[in-house]
Design the sequence.
């Protein structure tokens, strides 16, 4: 195994952090990466996008999250080096030579995120993981230059951990698995800044019972209840925070706003800043991508809020000043009603293309085995006293009840006017009344047939 070492700083740098108290940096390469302009850009990108419209405190950024994941990974590496150091190759224990690699990959795991990342990716066909790998391996970036201090191939190795192609699964799963440093940090951090308690779990105990094994990371049997606590915290955060209906509504508005802007730009009918123009024109480079942040996007939204295009102006104002769409739950059967409801919405003066949408939010709180997808082959393993590994749900009835289940809903979004009007007579009242017949208890329903007497 190649040795990866960095020069040490003359004095340890310490960042104050509300979640982990202190974040410690001793390696020069880590400090140089943090100071790189591509990393500093993350200060200007909110971690949870429009979630601050629901949870006002959720204005924390991807900068502090990446620092937090680094800090957790640093602590875990120290624990592994102290308690489970490799004695000979292939013994399934931790090779201290890989600690720096793991920490740099943790620090850079989200470096490719842009503003409003998931909405942006969907519309402009970008991928934050691939963008991250490109930022790390491009020799023109300050991050790449910092990483090359360690060795000429170090940037490619860091990128391979993020791409999940690095040969040692211990390093990969430390930052990408069902119980990794990334999830541990964002659950605690997002809970703190949203002001909820759902995401809190016993991190101290988790770090006490985590350990490496040949194929990844596991937990000792005595810590099973702490791992259960982590799984339940994750479940609650998804249901109560990440899948909040107003948060999803603002994402729908944002998507339609950018969709409308893209159409107008292609028709040469849009005022836009140069940083965003390249994306609307579908002719962008890595340098263009690195110039995007929340401030750029919001500057454009302010420009568009006064547009002569009524749809663009209205959507921009809805997003800037928090006027969410209303929504109701739907299922496979009631989805068939949407074309009929779209017609009613159009009769009430709204273009359904921009003022209605469906949005699915489903999560598998714990899945013992996923052959494909982000967490492929990543069950949480519990190590017994004799070294035998047992999948978590085999020990835990609580986790077993969640195993393979889908939690969440699919919703139909539409203008709030369709269901909530003021007391004055409205010209569209008959349309509103017809629309409301299909809604009962926050769900879409077929009309009840009159009973035969």
Sequence:
């Amino acid at each position: 195994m190649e040795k990866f070492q960095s020069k040490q700083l003359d004095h340890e740098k310490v960042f104050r952090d509300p979640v982990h108290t202190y974040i410690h940096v001793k390696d020069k390469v880590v400090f140089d990466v943090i100071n790189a302009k591509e990393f500093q850009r993350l200060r200007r990108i909110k971690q949870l996008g429009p979630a601050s419209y629901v949870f006002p405190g959720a204005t924390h950024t991807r900068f502090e999250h990446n620092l937090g994941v680094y800090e957790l990974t640093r602590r875990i590496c120290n624990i592994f080096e102290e308690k489970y150091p490799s004695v000979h190759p292939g013994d399934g224990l931790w090779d201290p030579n890989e600690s720096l690699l793991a920490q740099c990959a943790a620090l850079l795991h989200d470096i490719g995120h842009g503003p409003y990342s998931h909405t942006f990716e969907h519309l402009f066909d970008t991928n934050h993981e691939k963008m991250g790998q490109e930022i790390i391996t491009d020799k023109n970036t300050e991050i790449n230059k910092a990483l090359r201090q360690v060795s000429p191939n170090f940037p490619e190795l860091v990128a391979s951990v993020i791409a999940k192609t690095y040969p040692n699964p211990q390093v990969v799963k430390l930052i990408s698995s069902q119980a990794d440093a990334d999830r541990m940090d964002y659950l605690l951090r997002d809970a703190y800044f949203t002001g909820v308690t759902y995401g809190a779990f016993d991190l101290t105990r988790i770090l006490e019972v985590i350990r490496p094994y040949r194929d990844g990371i596991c937990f000792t049997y005595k810590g099973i209840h702490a791992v259960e606590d982590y799984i339940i915290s994750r479940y609650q955060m998804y249901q109560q925070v990440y899948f909040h209906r107003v948060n999803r509504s603002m994402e729908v508005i944002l998507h339609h706003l950018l969709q409308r802007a893209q159409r107008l730009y292609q028709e040469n009918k849009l005022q836009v800043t140069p940083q965003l123009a390249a994306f609307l024109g579908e002719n962008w480079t890595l340098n263009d991508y690195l110039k995007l942040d929340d401030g750029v996007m919001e500057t454009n939204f302010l420009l568009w809020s006064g547009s002569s295009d009524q749809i663009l102006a209205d959507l921009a104002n809805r997003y800037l000043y928090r006027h969410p769409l209303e929504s109701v739950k739907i299922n496979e059967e009631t989805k068939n009603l949407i074309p009929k409801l779209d017609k009613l919405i159009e009769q009430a003066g709204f273009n359904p293309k921009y003022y209605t949408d469906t949005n699915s939010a489903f999560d598998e709180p714990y899945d013992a085995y996923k052959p494909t997808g982000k967490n492929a082959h990543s069950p949480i393993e519990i190590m017994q006293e004799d070294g035998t590994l047992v999948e978590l749900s085999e020990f835990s009835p609580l986790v077993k009840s969640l195993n393979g289940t889908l939690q969440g809903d699919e919703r139909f979004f539409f203008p709030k006017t369709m269901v909530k009007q003021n007391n004055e007579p409205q010209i569209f009242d008959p349309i509103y009344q017809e629309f409301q017949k299909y809604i009962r208890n926050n769900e879409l329903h077929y009309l009840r047939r009159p009973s035969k007497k």
